[in-house]
Amino acid sequence: MTAEMQAPETTYPTTHQGIIDFVTEVAALTQPDRIHWCTGSDEEWTELTDALVATGTFTRLNPAIKPNSFYAASDPIDVARVEDRTYICSVNERDAGPTNNWMAPDEMKKKMRGLYAGSMRGRTMYVIPFVMGHVEAERPMFGIELTDSAYVTASMRVMARMGTAVLDRMTELDAEFVPCIHSVGHPLEPGQADVAWPCNDTKYIVQFPEERAIWSYGSGYGGNALLGKKCYALRIASVMARDEGWLAEHMLILKLTSPAGTVKYIAAAFPSACGKTNLAMLQPTIPGWKVETLGDDIAWMRVGEDGRLWAVNPEYGFFGVAPGTNEHTNPNAMKTINKGNSVFTNVALTDDGDIWWEGLENPPASATSWKGEPWGPQSEELSSHPNSRYCTPIKQCDILAAEYDDPRGVPIDAILFGGRRKTTVPLVFEARDWTHGTFLGATLSSETTAAAVGAVGVVRRDPMAMLPFIGYNAGDYFGHWINVGKDNDAAKLPKIFYVNWFRRDDEGGFLWPGFGENSRVLKWVVERIDGQAAAVETPIGHVPTPESLDTEGLDLTPEALAAALAVDADEWRAELPQIQEWFEKFGDDLPGVLWTELDGLRARLGG
Ligand code: GDP
Ligand code: PGA
Ligand code: MN
Predict the structure, then answer these.
(1) Rounded Cα–Cα distance for residues 343 and 317 (Å)
(2) Which residues' Cβ are closer than 6 Å to ligand 1?
(3) Ligand 2, atom 6: nearest CA belongs to which residue?
C-alpha cells in the first residue's frame, strides 16, 4: 500500500484490533468515499432502502399490498451463481481438486488486489458484523463483510443475524472471524452517474480455505455476494467441519409431527432450485400430519454427546426461487412474503406496485418484466428470470419451529438426498446403511437449473448437492462422510433416503404431483425408521411397496404410481459407466468403500 492510499476517516465502534486492521486495510485498498458501520437498526434499514430507492436500485412496492418491501432488477449479466468464476484457493492444488477451480492463493490475491484497487471509489463501504448461527452458540461463527453494495447490505440484514449486538459480542470475546470482502467492481468517478445495478463483466468468487477468508468481486447476486451464505456457511464451513469432525451441508431442516404426536426431524439435500425451500415449508395433504420449518438451505450438523446428529440452520432468512411459488405449491412461503419486509429480485413489477412471476395466481393484465420491458399474458418472453428470488425474514414464517431459536439445534432422524431426474430414479428409496447412503449422496445426479449460469437441464453428478460448495478435495469430503458413520454408533445416526419428485411420464408430465403431496413420502420415511412400513429390496435399495405409501385421497392412477416407484434395471445399468467415470475423476482420493459399493450395485444389477 502506498502513502497516498489513505482510508477515509471513520470512528471505530469497536476496540477489536483485528476488525480495525481489516477495515483499515481494505478501505485503503478500495478507496471508498465513506465507511458505514452497520447497526442492524430499523432506522438504518429505512435509510438504506430510501437510498436504494433514490438510486433506482429499489422500487418501493405498494405498502397496502407488500409493506416495507422492494423490487429490484439486476443487470441481465448478473442473475445467478457463477460456478466457472468460483475458486477454492488452497495452498496445494490437490486440496481443491478435482471438482473446484483453483489458483495459487498468492497469484489470486495479486490479481484481485489489482481489481480491488480503487474499486469502491465514489461509494460507501458498509461494514457488516454478522454471525452465522446463534450469537449464544458454544462457539459463535462470526464474520465481517465489507461491501460497497447497499443492496447486499439490505439483503444481509434479512439473511443473517448482524449489527451492533454481534459486533459488541465479537469485541467482548476478541473473537476470531471470517473476513469477507465484496465489491461490485463499479467505482464512480467524480460526477459519474450510478446505474441501478452496478456490477462488472469480470467476476471472481474466491475462498481461501486455510486462511478462512472470502474475496468476491464483480457480482451483486445473492450466492455470489451475500458472503455469509454459500461462501461462508458452506465452502469455508465445510473446511472447518472437516478439521473439527462435523458436517456443513446444503440441506433444509424440517420437523414432522404425526397424528399421534410423534416428532421426527428430517434434513434434505437437493441441488439449487430442486425443491429445498418448498419441502422445508410443506403443507401436508394427509390429515393430522404437521410440518414445521427450521431451515431451507443450510444445515450445520454435529454428533452430540448422546450420539445423535444435531443440526442448526445458520441463516436468518429465506432466499427462495420465486417462479412456481404460489398459494397451492407453497402457501407458507406466500404468507411469509405477504407480511412484507422483503426484497424481490428479477421478478415482474405490476402496475399497482405488486410483484408477479410465472406460476403465481392471477396474472396481471400488464406489468413490467424483469428486463424493464412492458409485459402481458400474451408476451412470449418470461416476465421473471427463472432464478428470480424473494428474500424474506425467517421469523415471519408462521410454521417456524420453536427449536429454531435453540443453539443446540435438533437431532436428525433422516437425511434425504434428491435431485431432478426425468428418468431412472424412483420417487423414494432407502439406503441399506450409512456407507450405502454415502454412496447414494456421492453419486447424486441432477439436471442443472437456472440457479447457476450455464446450460439448464443437463444431467450432472452433484454429490450431496454440494458440487459447487465443497471447500476442499471432494474425495476427502466423501471420506469425511464415511468416517462420521465409522466413528459413531450407526444405530443413532439418521437413516438415509433418496427421493426424486421430478420423474416424467411419456408425455413429459410429472409422474408425481409433488409439493404438499410429498408429505406421503415423508410419512413412509418415518414409518420406515420406526420399522412399520413395508418395502421391496431392489438392487438400488429399499423401495416402497405401492400399498405401503399412503395414497388415500390422492388423484393418481395405480399405473402412474407404479411408474413413479419403478426400478428399471436397464436404466440403472446405463448409470454404471457414468458412476464409474465420475469416481475415476478422484483417483486414489476416492475412499475404497465407494468402489466396493459400486461393485455391489453392479453385481446386484447382474452386470
Ligand atoms: P431450492 O433452490 O432447492 O430451495 O428449490 P425450491 O424449493 O425453491 O424449488 C425450485 C423450483 O422447483 C421451484 O420452481 C418449485 O416450484 C419447484 N419444485 C419444488 N418442489 C417441487 C415438487 O415437489 N414438484 C415439482 N414438480 N416441482 C417442485
Ligand atoms: P438455492 O441457492 O437455489 O440452493 O436456494 C441460492 C443461490 O443460488 O445461491
Ligand atoms: Mn432455496
Answers:
(1) 11
(2) 270, 272-278, 296, 320-321, 323-324, 329, 501-502, 510, 514-515, 518
(3) 223
The owner of cell 465479537 is 170
CATH fit for domain 318-396, picks 2.170.8.10, 3.40.630.30, 3.40.190.10, 2.60.120.380: 2.170.8.10
81 CB contacts (<8 Å, ≥6 apart)? 205, 221, 223, 224, 230, 272, 451, 452, 453, 468
Catalytic residue among 89, 231, 274, 397: 274
- Establish whether this prediction's ipTM goes over 0.90: yes
Architecture of the 247-316+402-604 domain: Alpha-Beta Complex (3.90)
Grid cell for residue 165: 449486538
List pLDDT tens digits, range 33-50: 999 999 999 999 999 999
For residue range 310-354, what is the model confidence (pLDDT) as tens digits? 999 999 999 999 999 999 999 999 999 999 999 999 999 999 999
**Catalytic-residue membership of 274:** yes
**What are the pLDDT digits (tens) for 366-383?**
999 999 999 999 999 999
The residues placing their C-beta within 5 Å of ligand 3, an ion, are 276-277
Domain parsing of the chain, residue ranges: 17-58+82-244, 247-316+402-604, 318-396
Question: Considering the entire predicted model, what is its pTM?
Answer: 0.97
When pLDDT is cut at 50, 70 and 90, the band that residue 5 belongs to is: low
Alpha helices in 117-233 (DSSP H): 150-159, 164-173, 222-225
